[in-house]
UniProtKB/TrEMBL annotation:
Pfam families: Bmp (PF02608). It comes from Streptomyces himalayensis subsp. himalayensis. Residues 47-347 form the ABC transporter substrate-binding protein PnrA-like domain. This is BMP family ABC transporter substrate-binding protein. It comes from the Bacteria. Keywords: Cell membrane, Lipoprotein, Membrane, Signal. CDD domains: PBP1_PrnA-like (cd06354).
Amino acid sequence: MRRVSRIAVAGAATASLALALSACGGTSTSVGSSESKGDKGLAIAYDVGGKGDQSFNDAAYAGLEKAKNEFGYKTADMEPTEGETDADKAQRLASLAKQGYNPVIGVGYAYATAVKEAAAKYPDTTFGIVDDSTIEADNVADLVFSEEEASYLAGVAAAKSTKSEVIGFVGGVDIPLIHKFEAGFKQGVEDTNPKVKVLSQYLTQTAEEGGFSSPDKGRTAAEGQIEKKADVVYQAAGLSGQGVIEAAAANKVWAIGVDSDQYAQEALSKYKKYILTSATKDVAKAVYNLAKSVEDGKPETGIVRGDLKSGEVGLADSNPEFKGDTELQEAIETAKEKIISGEIKVKTS
């Protein structure tokens, strides 16, 4: 049963949805049409790059779709706008809560201030934020992941796959979250083969400069690393990562994807031969689980972490060449077991 505090939304509110959402600095890209319940369910507000990034945001959308199909309620998902402020984000989240959506999730650390503000204004609505653990509120779930653990395994895979003993890392924005990816990756490489050199580059200092939303920047960075003999390039760069994958494919070297299984993404299908694996985090599951907890009347709050032990981070094995490499798979499985047991402590910076 849904919580008593869920707001039943009248038909008039549905008719005015598009106007209300556009007024708060974003556009609704998808609104569920199911009328089997008299109230609304999950709503998400995308991070930089928006839907179609074949990565982080698309994973959140997959979680929304699963919730919509299973619970038979209305959903909404909203795109960011260029140059928006924290106030714009907060207004977007507050508008969704006011209309009766519950839970409301901000996808990405950039929503921290906005989620905190909206949650205080709507205490009967459950809010979630992906990739931030700083909000302390009774009605907020901080959906975070041990990205460094999956990145360590990616480092093992890269070190086992390189022939030139030069590997690249491309981070979207120079922030602590992406430092976790780099730290785990470098540690995995070094522990596997200390002779391998890792070239690191961050595309921008801030998200506003396009570090997560500029495939051309990713492509240029990867090309520079490949010119320096890198034959495996790992990217943690959102939409910009598509450019990294394109550059790897053009130069017939390995790319390692991030967040989603990028080998399986339709938009990247022409490059998949060169996508060795992806360091995944199950944002879809985290989003769906929060929606289910609200649906069950026991909303998640506080820090909700996904890691190797829970199965919510890991390496994708869709590429047959990767999956069929017995020696590589054994090395990855050994590293995974040691991380889960605590024998290997993975760095976060």
